[in-house]
Specification:
The complex is a heterodimer of chains A (273) and B (286). Chain A has one domain: Spore Coat Polysaccharide Biosynthesis Protein SpsA, Chain A (Alpha-Beta Complex), CATH 3.90.550. Chain A has ten helices and twelve strands. A six-stranded mixed sheet of chain A has the order 3-2-1-4-7-6. In chain A, helix 6 crosses helix 8. Chain B is built from seven helices and 15 strands. In chain B, strand 13 and strand 14 form a beta hairpin. Chain B has one domain: Spore Coat Polysaccharide Biosynthesis Protein SpsA, Chain A. Chain B starts with a strand and ends with a helix. Classes of the chains: A alpha/beta (273), B alpha/beta (286).
Amino acid sequence: MNRGFCLLAQNNKDTNYIRQAYALALSLHKYNTGQRISLITNDIVPKEWQSVFDQIIPIPWTDSAEDSDWKIENRWKVYHASPYDETIVLEADMLITQDITHWWDELSKHDLFFVSNVKTYRNETVDSRFYRKTFDANNLPNLYSALHYFKKGNTAKEFYILLEIIVNNWELFYTRYAKEEYQKWCSIDVCAAIASKILGNEKEITNPNSFITFTHMKTRLQKWKNIPNNWTSVLGQYFRDDGTLLLGNYVQTNVLHYVEDNFLKDSVIEKLK
Amino acid sequence: MSQGVFLFAQNNHTIDYIKQSIFCAKKIKKHLGLPVALATDNVEYLEKHFPFYKKYIDHVIPLEWKECKQIKTFFDGSMSKRELEWRNHERPEVYNLTPFDETLVMDTDFIIGNDILKNAFGTSEEFLIFRDIKDLNYDRPGINIFDYVSDKSVDMYWATVFYFKKTPSMKLFFDLIAHIKDNWKFYRIIHQIPTIKFRNDFAFSIAIHMLNGHQRTSWPKSLPGNLWFTTDSDILIKTEDEKYTFLLGKKDWVGHYTLSSIKEANIHIMNKFSLDRAIDEVLSDE
């Protein structure tokens, strides 16, 4: 069984996601030896960045997100594009801060696995439901697609085929499964949660007590009383020479979903090289 | 292994911490039955005004008197306040000063009302301290309770009362606190602490975080029991043996209070003025 990471990245007018994917790949290689990473994109990848990727794969079929800013319309294609038997899917705006190779043994017990609890930068379990109102109001599984795993086979295939249908008809499905606290945009987390609810597989594809998690840097999740617009404006960010990353005096040991692109300064990338 | 309780008492012009220490030691003797060491920069005052002190204090450790430029606002209920010197810089020295192998250190305004803290001694733990505290006033949830040193910074621990063994790792811990104290301007900026005043709770919390490798771990464990507290906006109005009756300041209603009592508890009474008045009554028959 070959295993690898897949990153789907498409630049938009504001953010260079290819650069983020490059930094993520650098961080994966820095702390995890012998890992394969594939980048799925139709964008041009600078030559000097290409070597960190095992493969650079075009987005299958047509680009469904051509006219979209958020570009989530292609996410369901990861299953079909992945060259691996077992795949960990990561969003581009993440960094790895430790060796996670042992995750494979845990994840391979599942056909499909989504994170359903996330951490603050202080490594506290997030309890804010600010961004998850529609999940609670509609009793949807609390899935985070930013970090998930699949093993190629009927179970994952069935899930992704349904996810494709939901993403392409999200308003119809939202009206049926997420009508309370209705979100007026297509969210891959909500779509994945609806797919899980329809298939009735929540217990098989997630575990809120799992050690497989990530640090989610959305500001309202951080247990702060004074909420800033951007976490990068209020927390010190320090990269030690030994590669340790500290945010606000806390060493980061989880996968870091930094969310804000201005965190990824050139100096951070230099440290990761 | 010798065991005992250590108190610091350094008076300013108004607050008589030495008197508090006599009352505190009296309660320690009653409930914990342990020897008490008192470090003070005014032994003469102790001997002159409290000639009976040896009933409660077993070791007196003289401290050098130092000029203090640190000023703190002390409230006496929500309507009265004074700006006074705040001498709290000696606490990191407790490792070198204590005559005991195992020491329970406490503020003189922390009043013992039961024997539960005896269970801190004789375990394998080198250091025990409270992370969670309990406000006697349930009417103001969240007020004056800090989960963190500052909104964006590290977990808050309370140096009001703590236990330690004399070990090399605890020496390192107290040396680190002394370093943080000596470089307070730096550490308070790094930890986004608005006040310029040095506070032992903050220094202890930062030192714990640093020794944990800048991460959350299960160290240190909590002292047994609860750390109850009343703020200096509350007023202690009556003491009856182990029962303390307070007027508790109402949130958003300055000058309005709720009558409340607590019995046989270990409680931190932050209003020094009302504690002083209550102690006068209790010590009047000495």
